[in-house]
């Protein structure tokens, strides 16, 4: 359990804390600025989410820089990412802040690509992250933050950035998933070999 893996585990442990602040049935005070309103628990959850999301790059950087890449890290890192994004998106659906179909599309893509990665690993192939995969992660995090903070500051100019960011995240997520499958179609052999 090296430093990089500890950071990854910390990211996993932050997931239930974020969900607690998002879904707890306690009335927290509101901050109100004109027509904009946000609760303190949303601010806390958003802050923790930003910290957790930022550790994704940090643990990978430390693992590569200090030559701490391990099989445990390869397993935990993508798991932590998916747990974080999935848990917060499901919480946002519960809060009525994002359409369920967008979350279903994003989660379906994440687990489909995870399945493809597992098949590739069984065949001794490592699927490297593509630029669209990285863009997908950035789009998802941007959309989640916008939703967590009630579209601040765009709400003051009546611009639905959170809705646009959610749609963009869904579209980029689907595109990056298709790209993964097209580029790695050799991993899946649908032909039956007969003896």
From TrEMBL:
Membrane topology: Multi-pass membrane protein
EC number: 2.7.8.5
Keyword annotations: Lipid biosynthesis, Lipid metabolism, Membrane, Phospholipid biosynthesis, Phospholipid metabolism, Transferase, Transmembrane, Transmembrane helix
Regions crossing the membrane: 6-26, 38-63, 137-157, 163-182
PROSITE patterns linked: CDP_ALCOHOL_P_TRANSF
Subcellular location: Membrane
Gene Ontology MF: a single term: CDP-diacylglycerol-glycerol-3-phosphate 3-phosphatidyltransferase activity
Range of residues in the leader sequence: none
InterPro entries, sorted: CDP-alcohol_PTase-I, CDP-OH_P_trans, CDP-OH_PTrfase_TM_dom, CDP_ALCOHOL_P_TRANSF_CS, Phosphatidylglycerol_P_synth
Function: This protein catalyzes the committed step to the synthesis of the acidic phospholipids.
Protein name, UniProt field: CDP-diacylglycerol--glycerol-3-phosphate 3-phosphatidyltransferase
Species this chain originates from: Paenibacillus violae
Gene: pgsA
